UniProtKB/TrEMBL annotation:
<protein>
    <recommendedName>
        <fullName>Aminotransferase class V domain-containing protein</fullName>
    </recommendedName>
</protein>
<dbReference type="InterPro" id="IPR015424">
    <property type="entry name" value="PyrdxlP-dep_Trfase"/>
</dbReference>
<keyword id="KW-0663">Pyridoxal phosphate</keyword>
Length: 105
């Protein structure tokens, strides 16, 4: 018997609390017919909520260099092309794809 099986909700809530506090809108409320309610987001299948550490990285490190990936004649285009290729490599490694597998982006 594990600690998780004894108190699964408490253990999971504590484990994920560090992540939850960084989710944009985690404490967001809305007016419902039953008064003010907190949004409960439960559809993480196709898309998730914005996660602040990732959003900050994108804002600070990617967006200042955002450009067309179809050109290598500028520093911004070169950096975006390099970032795109690196991202594809990371995704292929994550799903154990090999050189014969194609990633459709």
């Amino acid at each position: 018997m594990t600690l998780l099986s004894l108190h699964p909700k408490n253990v999971l809530e504590e484990y994920f609390s560090g992540y939850r506090k960084n989710i944009t809108g985690d404490q967001q409320t809305f007016e419902s017919p039953f008064g003010k309610k907190r949004i409960i987001y439960a559809d993480w299948t196709a898309s998730g909520r914005a996660y602040q550490p990732i959003e900050k990285y994108i804002q600070d490190e990617i967006l200042p260099f955002a450009a067309n990936t179809h050109t290598e004649t500028t520093i911004t285009g070169s950096l975006m092309s390099q970032a795109y290729e690196t991202a594809k490599s990371i995704i292929k490694a994550h799903v154990n794809a090999n050189n014969e597998d194609v990633l459709i982006a």
